[in-house]
Fold this sequence. Notes:
Blueprint: E1 8-9, H1 13-37, H2 51-76, H3 86-91, H4 93-97, H5 113-135, H6 147-177, H7 181-187, E2 189-190, H8 192-198, H9 200-220
Antiparallel strand pairs: 1-2
The protein binds protoporphyrin IX containing FE.
Protoporphyrin IX containing FE binds at residues 10, 19, 22-23, 26, 65, 72, 76, 80, 111, 115-116, 119, 122, 168, 171-172, 175, 181-182, 184-185.
Membrane topology: Multi-pass membrane protein
Subcellular location: Cell membrane
Enzyme class: oxidoreductase
Amino acid sequence: xxxxxxxxxxxxxxxxxxxxxxxxxxxxxxxxxxxxxxxxxxxxxxxxxxxxxxxxxxxxxxxxxxxxxxxxxxxxxxxxxxxxxxxxxxxxxxxxxxxxxxxxxxxxxxxxxxxxxxxxxxxxxxxxxxxxxxxxxxxxxxxxxxxxxxxxxxxxxxxxxxxxxxxxxxxxxxxxxxxxxxxxxxxxxxxxxxxxxxxxxxxxxxxxxxxxxxxxxxxxx
Length: 221
Ligand code: HEM
């Protein structure tokens, strides 16, 4: 789908809404989690009102992040499956990082190989966080598990939590680095030049689809 100014729809409204809702819930859950992990920043739990309120809300915010990511998983998994052409991106990683264009086309689909790796790591981390979080949730479930399971769950939760925060910091850095992608996630649209430069195979597939549609319209007249 295109707009009159010839930009391309990259992310639909429901997907964008979900992404930014996940960002908000993730930020609040992460801040409260960090405030218990590092005593020097315990003041951060005040961001959710009071430390008691943070304790109460943290698991629900985590479940909201999980639910949002389930929706995003369903919408984006198809474009994040490994493709043969991902090998080119890995092979040319230096050119990608140095923003050097030209030479052999990178044949990048809707998401590049790095985004795909990040996608699967984010999904794996949230699953570990959900399962371990439920096990250690004192109000409802913790009493059903032996202490050794609780200790393992607390360890897994801390490791996955810190891991996911680091992944998201990388994700934000890359979103800023690739100029135009945040605008894409806000408005839904990217320019054709952006698509051609960063996701050449995806852009080519869109053009082929448009040409087929125009052809079919021409035959119908
Ligand atoms: C300020 C924080 C964030 C910014 C600026 C940001 C930015 C973006 C942008 C620009 C995209 C689209 C990339 C593209 O079209 O190529 C994207 C996609 C995505 N974001 Fe974020 N994001 C943020 C936080 C998060 C968080 C906290 C999560 C999950 C916990 C997340 C999960 C995702 C996922 C799953 C995708 C789809 C990528 C794919 O399918 O490979 N983002 N984000």
